[in-house]
């Protein structure tokens, strides 16, 4: 099968300054396409599967969009480019809109593509006989992520859900997969929060075992008490309001990607994942875990957004001042779903 690789544009600010703002068009044989840039935090990572599929399956082109995918982390500089149209949207985890709002940048998620953290909580095998419940996490050493990472938010949320404080566990900064494996094996950490394929690696090495499934909606609700909005497309709020048709076309393309995920087998999806994804990321086992994140029609559940904000504010109190209602909008996805002749076959149960 011939793969259509995304056109990558790496985040060199000087080059971006030369980009034309939204609205630049190029004539093709069939139609006039709007040229835009979408920033993606991890183009080749499983959590962004809808991006790869929307590009690979031609859903952007179907909406009249000529999309360039730009690899970059979500940050204030990208938010500035969202505001003036050099970048049309940012695909990243939802909590970045909370951070942006707290720092005075009006950004909102326009479609919610994933509703779980996309991780597994693994326990070091030395402990799996003596620690069997989440209520026993207090005092444990957990390999998480940076302060603003979704891994840390997940760890904090796990503790809060058990009635603990976020200071009731010992966070350990992540390193390389090999070093994390050595740390777990040596008994220097009790748990690790990891995505696939890393989680599968630790299990295959006999180092750690699954303790809590944070890929599935059911497992996430059991562990956190609610779903966890993760992968979203967010835009500058003023820009989305000024260009509602663009927002609608982008949301429709991603909604179609979600519908495709819901309607295909894991093997069929794995066969379509572009070669940009690392070899392990194309394994059916990895895909079968990853697709559980996307059990949604694209609508942001308000209760889950507020729960996530609470978990983030536990570490960064300033985020508690953010008006959560301004960090997302369901306006565009509601319009797309209303006008769609078919509904997603698998949504949040």
Please give a structural write-up.
With 349 residues, the chain is α/β, with parallel strands linked by helices. The chain folds into 2 domains: 13-116 and 229-339, D-Maltodextrin-Binding Protein, domain 2; 119-214, D-Maltodextrin-Binding Protein, domain 2, CATH 3.40.190. 38% of the residues lie in helices and 17% in strands. The chain is built from 15 helices and 11 strands. It has helices at residues 13-17, 49-56, 59-62, 76-84, 95-102, 150-161, 177-185, 198-204, 217-224, 237-242, 244-263, 266-272, 284-290, 302-315, 331-339, and strands at 25-27, 32-40, 65-71, 89-93, 107-112, 119-124, 141-143, 170-172, 191-194, 208-214, 231-236. Strands 1, 2, 3, 4, 5 and 11 form a 6-stranded mixed sheet that branches. A 5-stranded mixed sheet has the order 8-7-9-6-10, sandwiched between helices. A hairpin with a 4-residue loop joins strand 1 (25-27) and strand 2. Residues 1-30 and 342-346 have low confidence and may be disordered.
Head-to-tail CA distance between termini: 35 Å
Mean pLDDT: 88
CATH architecture of the largest domain: 3-Layer(aba) Sandwich
Task: List low-pLDDT spans.
Answer: 1-30, 342-346
| Class of secondary structure makeup | alpha/beta
Spatial shape:
globular
Report the CATH topology name of the largest domain: D-Maltodextrin-Binding Protein, domain 2
Kindly state the percentage of residues in helix. 25-40%
Proportion of residues in β-strands: 15-25%
* Radius of gyration (Å): 20 Å
Number of individual domains: 2
CATH class of the largest domain: Alpha Beta
Secondary-structure element string: HEEHHEHEHEEEHEHEHEHEHHHHHH
Count of strand segments: 11
CATH superfamily of the largest domain: Periplasmic binding protein-like II
């Amino acid at each position: 099968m011939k793969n259509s690789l995304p056109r990558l544009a790496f985040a060199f600010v000087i080059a971006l300054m030369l980009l034309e703002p939204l609205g630049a068009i190029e004539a093709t044989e069939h139609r006039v396409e709007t040229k835009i840039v979408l920033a993606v935090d991890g183009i080749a990572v499983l959590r962004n599967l809808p991006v790869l599929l929307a590009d690979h399956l031609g859903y952007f082109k179907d909406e009249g969009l000529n999309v360039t995918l730009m690899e970059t982390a979500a940050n204030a500089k990208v938010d500035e480019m969202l505001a003036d149209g050099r970048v049309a949207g940012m695909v990243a985890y939802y909590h970045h809109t909370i951070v942006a709002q707290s720092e005075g940048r009006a950004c909102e998620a326009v479609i919610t593509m994933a509703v779980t953290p996309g991780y597994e909580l693994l326990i070091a095998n030395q402990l799996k006989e003596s620690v069997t419940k989440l209520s026993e996490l207090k005092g444990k050493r957990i390999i998480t992520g940076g302060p603003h990472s979704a891994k840390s938010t997940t760890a904090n949320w796990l503790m809060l859900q058990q009635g603990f404080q976020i200071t009731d566990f010992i966070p350990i900064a992540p390193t390389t997969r090999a070093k994390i494996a050595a740390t777990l094996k040596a008994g220097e950490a009790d748990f690790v929060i990891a995505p696939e394929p890393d989680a599968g690696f630790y299990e295959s090495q006999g180092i750690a075992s699954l303790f809590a499934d944070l890929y599935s909606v059911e497992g996430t609700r059991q562990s956190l008490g609610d779903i966890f909005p993760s992968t979203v497309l967010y835009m500058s709020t003023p820009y989305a309001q000024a260009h509602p048709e663009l927002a609608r076309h982008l949301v429709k393309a991603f909604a179609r990607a979600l519908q495709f995920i819901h309607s295909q087998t894991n093997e069929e999806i794995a066969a379509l994942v572009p070669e940009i994804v690392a070899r392990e990321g194309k394994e059916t086992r990895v895909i079968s875990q990853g697709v559980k994140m996307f059990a949604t029609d694209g609508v942001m559940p308000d209760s889950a957004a507020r729960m996530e904000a609470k978990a983030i504010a536990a570490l960064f109190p300033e985020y508690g001042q953010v008006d959560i209602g301004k960090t997302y909008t369901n306006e565009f996805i509601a319009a797309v779903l209303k006008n769609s002749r078919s509904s997603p076959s698998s949504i949040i149960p």
